[in-house]
Structure formats: C-alpha cells, structure tokens
Amino acid sequence: MIIVGVGNNMVKLGDAGYYKCPRCHNECPFCVMEISKKFDVFWIPVAKWDKRYYLTCTICSYGYEVQKEEINQYIKTGAGV
Ligand SMILES: [Zn+2]
Known about the structure:
Bound molecules: zinc ion
CATH topology: N-terminal domain of TfIIb
Number of domains: 1
Structural class: mainly beta
Order of helices and strands: EEEEH
Helix content: under 10%
Strand order of the largest sheet: 1-2-3-4
Largest sheet: 4 strands, antiparallel
CATH architecture: Single Sheet
Strand content: over 45%
C-alpha cells in the first residue's frame, strides 16, 4: 500500500516589517511566505510546483502576491540567508 497526498506547502521566508493591512486596517508585522503545491509519498515530499510568494498579514492572514525578484526588498531580517 502506497500512501500519497497532495497539499499546500507553506514556508516562512522572513519578516517583512510593518505595513498597513488593506483588509484588517492594522499596522502590523507582515512576513513573506512561500506557498507551493506538494506531492507526498509516505509523507516525504517528492515534488513541489506552482511556487508563489506572498506578503502576509500576521493578524488576519491576508496575503498579496509578490514576484520572486521582489522578495529581497521586502525581507528585513535575513532568516536563513
Ligand atoms: Zn490584516
């Protein structure tokens, strides 16, 4: 028996500093998230595709998409870089 799964893979890339959120109207810390689709076999990810990057409000989880080339100008603290 082979157990496979498909889901979303979310990775926090770093903190983006404070922005005013267009949804909850709080001025709050945003973070940059990488969200991709993943395919697991026995809970081991074997494929990732459709990578997208979002600036995400940490209060209401509102996110808006940013381009990969723009990420570095948003991330203030280089987590893992
Ligand atoms: Zn918000």
